[in-house]
Design a protein that fits this description.
Order of helices and strands: HEEHHHHH
Strand content: 5-15%
Helix content: 55-70%
Protein name: Phage tail assembly chaperone protein, TAC
Distance between the termini: 38 Å
Radius of gyration: 15 Å
Mean pLDDT: 82
Number of helices: 6
């Protein structure tokens, strides 16, 4: 579903955003978002495993984490009420692009070379 890793490298874009509840939020994987996701899952790695499997619970948790950084009053249930399958399909693709943009390139060789 969506874009594959190799294809992500060829997509040139600005910051990805989502619109939820009439507001636009950036899709970023910074420490605030990752911390919120960790609070929900207890383990960010498990969250990413579930996101790769396109599990609804994981997508809701990630969208919640993105919104929670800017809206302290939002709840998981509030977010769940605002999402539908059309949103999820678009979000999965955008989140993949954003993740690729936010993660550093892996290079081979020793540090300092």
């Amino acid at each position: 579903m969506g874009v594959k890793g190799k294809e992500l490298k060829t997509i040139k874009n600005d910051m990805q955003t989502i619109e939820v509840g009439g507001k636009t939020y950036p899709i970023v994987f910074d420490f605030n978002v990752l911390s919120e996701l960790e609070d929900i899952y207890g383990d960010v790695s498990k969250a990413f495993e579930d996101l790769e499997k396109v599990k609804i619970k994981a997508i809701r948790a990630l969208v919640y984490s993105l919104i929670k950084v800017e809206d302290e009053e939002i709840t998981l249930k509030d977010v769940g009420k605002m999402l539908d399958m059309d949103f999820i399909n678009k979000f999965v693709e955008k989140a993949g692009i954003a993740l690729n943009n936010d993660m550093p390139e892996v290079t081979t060789g020793n540090v300092g070379e």
